[in-house]
Amino acid sequence: MIKRKLVxxxxxxxxxxxxxxxxxxAYELHRDEFLHLDQAKHLSWGYLSVPPFTSWVAExxxxxxxSVFWIKSFPALFGALTIFVVWKTIEELNGNMFALxxxxxxxxxxxxLRINTLFQPNSFDILCWTAFYFIVIKxxxxxxxxxxxxxxxxxxxxxxxxxxxxxLLVGFAPAILISKQRxxxxxxxxxxxxxxxxxLISPNIIWQYQNNFPVVHHMKELAATQLVNxxxxxxxxxxLLFFTGSxxxxxxALIGLIVYEPFRNYKSxxxxxxxxxxxxTYLKAKGYYAIGLYPVYxxxxxxxxxxxxxxxxxxxxxxxxxxxPILLFIPFYSIGFPNKSPEFIxxxxxxxxxxxxLKWEDGKDHSLPQDFAxxxxxxxxxxxxxxxxxxxxxxxxxxxxxDNYGQAGAINFYSKQNIKAVSFxxxxxxxxxxxxxxxxxxxxxxxxxxxxxxxxxxxxxQTSFIAGSVTNSNAREFGTTVFVFSGAKVxxxxxxxxxxxxxxKGD
Length: 507
Fold this sequence. Notes:
This protein is mainly alpha-helical. 59% of the residues lie in helices and 6% in strands.
């Protein structure tokens, strides 16, 4: 037992060390991280694109000092806890030390390392999928009703983190219906547990109702602008990349769930896998939406492989199975993380293109992976906005208005002037302070919208000029321009109110 605990502790330590080594100093925070950090300044039971859980974590980050170290520590922690839950699942399935080593290595050296580099809801989402499946296994094994209530709590917390968790139920419910566990649907405690989950998530549902269900608009916009560029074949191909080194373990899990006698009580997991992937494929989901599905199957596969290779010559296969995730991770380590400088990636572009890493959500290839380009140029933008803001000191109140949430969040995070930048984009549309009249306006415009801005806005102000632009050609924000307008001739709050009203009406 002590040996097992030491090995588990070693995996968790390695997990944290790896996470902090996967991002080159050449990169800054990701645009999505800025939005989630700013949500902590506007705590609510919901936001336009996500539930509230990540904002609660962001609040803890602020209390701890709001440093990059703490920002990165929480996704790393959720990744480490995912390994821990997989470990406990393997123990629950009576796996031996080899199974524990195989399962933990397979989860450690996977796409979770990439997911766990970013302060987003995804890391906790994967943890919740894994924890929920673990609780289902506990209930199937013991039929103790306490696990029904534990499952409802985990589901509620996961739902308050990311609505993606609902697809777990969409895939698992029909799987249970065609299994002997369907008797759960006549269990009164099952419905009590469902009621408990509904009570726990009700504040967010009420918030959605009060705000005309913005999640519906967000999903429509996502489908129209991003998912429309996703091919079903591409979604399925992505599934092969996330756990390349442990594909054999996942395949073994599906075989074991059918033929392995100790798994006879868990056959619904086989159909849950099929149904869940089918739903995601039909909806043309982004590939990473399904990552939470896999850790529990790695647990099943590890236990099954440990059983079928536990005697005779087959024992010699165990070192090979352990080596596979490590060996196949090596090339992924060299191209799958922002641990190489932009200059290195540009000089090895064909290698990245071969793996489809240069394709952005617009369906086109670019010079850097989209996530990497989204981690550049922000400090430069904030510095130039700060300079413009300082130049307006003593000339009245200044509004900093950005084209998108990444710009607003980055300026708020990196600014030395305590700027509270806003945007008509994402949740920032609800965070305008219109209590006082603005004398000055700093506009941050994307390159495609910058050409005519001076001509369009200058008539409303006494003076106007361009303070600078993002010069990093590798940044997604390359060319984003900072415009300065001072001495307002009109009360710009009225125009802002109309714009907010029109955009919300359009939503």
